[in-house]
Amino acid sequence: MEGSGKYTFPTETRYEGDMKDGMFHGKGTLYFPNGSKYEAKWENGIAVEGKYTFADGLEYDEGEWLYCDGYDRRFYTEICQGLKPAGRSQLTDRVPPRDIPEGCYDTGDGFYNPNTRIIVDYNHKFLRNADDDEHEWIVKTCRKGWDEIVGHQTPEAT
After folding, report:
1. Is the pTM value of this prediction over 0.70?
2. Which one of 34, 35, 72, 136 is separated from 58 by 20 to 30 angstroms, measured CA to CA?
3. How far is CA 27 from CA 11, 61, 65, 108, in A?
4. How many angstroms separate the CA atoms of 132 and 25, rounded?
5. E strands present in the chain
6. How far apart are CA 2 and CA 14, in angstroms?
């Protein structure tokens, strides 16, 4: 591949831009299935400078990243649209939050089934198998597709 063109990966990520000797070379953009994109200057397949834009329009700026830092924990949609009334929590940056299938977790790029250890995208197409480290991280940190009763629990008598 040589010159300007388009290439679509099996994951449906699409590259549009300049190529040289079958590699990204020059200006080009990666478009991800979730709606985000990475615009970059490439040299022999390696991005030497670039800008990532999330699907909601938030641009990542490594030098001046002000979103979701130690001082301001609001979601980007809360910054743009304001906070919800008191007592109504916003659990994700997506409004309304995505419905998670029963027994699964929302990993940010799809749904994870801890029984099969498979992550599928939001259209239920296979993404990857979770290794032990990713499984542990998902179960510990990601939003669940079911409710859990929390709070005081009386210890069982033994």
Report:
1. no
2. 136
3. 22, 19, 24, 28
4. 36
5. 3-8, 14-20, 23-31, 37-43, 46-53, 105-106, 111-113, 118-120, 126-129, 143-144
6. 16
